[in-house]
Amino acid sequence: MFKELDPLLHSQLRLGVMSLLMSVESAEFTFLKEKTNATAGNLSVQLDKLSEAGYITIEKSFKGKKPLTTCTITKKGMKAFEEYVNALKQYIKP
Amino acid sequence: MFKELDPLLHSQLRLGVMSLLMSVESAEFTFLKEKTNATAGNLSVQLDKLSEAGYITIEKSFKGKKPLTTCTITKKGMKAFEEYVNALKQYIKP
DNA sequence: AATATTTGGTTTACATTATAAACTATTTTA
DNA sequence: TAAAATAGTTTATAATGTAAACCAAATATT
CB–CB of A55/A76 below 8 Å? Predict the structure, then answer.
């Protein structure tokens, strides 16, 4: 009856991150933090999970002398997001 | 940026239950169990949570001599579901 | 020049949650 | 009458989410 909802995406913060990353080329840690209103710790953990799943890539570099973490959604991540949205529609359609 | 997702509804099984209850007058435990593919234990726990939140009512009676648990969504439950769907749309809109 | 604060994170500990396993009680079937 | 099925509930465990505590470097303050 109902399709499974990818547990990696069925989490408010991770879904928010993925939603943002779907609409931009890439995003900095601080940008994601502001947009999602997450704490840095929580965001850090959830980004790692998305990265380990292969849904995003995380690049660490420096902006001037400050650390800079940049996230980009992968093909796999896009596909997972789309499938999640599709599955979800079953649950929320009127 | 993103609205909060009601944590009571942001759970695969509870969302499935609520989705079903939105479209029927009321539903028996066994019906919900089949449609959601949940184990009886899990379903029992999640129904209690929905009930405690005032999102559904649970009526226990007998069908012949067997116990019969009937669930009905409340006005509050409907409203919560609709708000959840609305909030969710922010996350998944293209 | 030392000290405090801010920035940009990560690690870890805790509390909550979800889930299945174990259990209860009755009923039906063999 | 013993076994298995029905209709659930309770409880123990594993997984999860989250914030608090932490770290290192840079910048601002006294």
Answer: yes
Set of chain B residues whose Cβ sits within 8 Å of the Cβ of A43: none
| Residue B87 banded pLDDT, cuts 50, 70, 90 | very high
Distance CA B84, CA A5 (A): 16
Q: Cβ within 7 Å of strand C: which of B 37-66?
A: 38-42, 45-46, 49, 64-66
Residue B70 vs residues A35, A94, B2, B6: alpha-carbon distances, Å: 42, 22, 35, 24
| Beta strand pairing call for A66-73 and B56-63 | unpaired
Contact A19 B88 (CB under 8 A): no
pLDDT grade, residue B58 (50/70/90)?
Answer: very high
Q: What is the DSSP letter of A51?
A: H
Q: How far is the CA of A66 from the C1' of D30 (A)?
A: 25
Task: Answer yes or no: pTM beyond 0.70.
Answer: yes
Instruction: Classify residue B58 by its DSSP letter.
Output: E
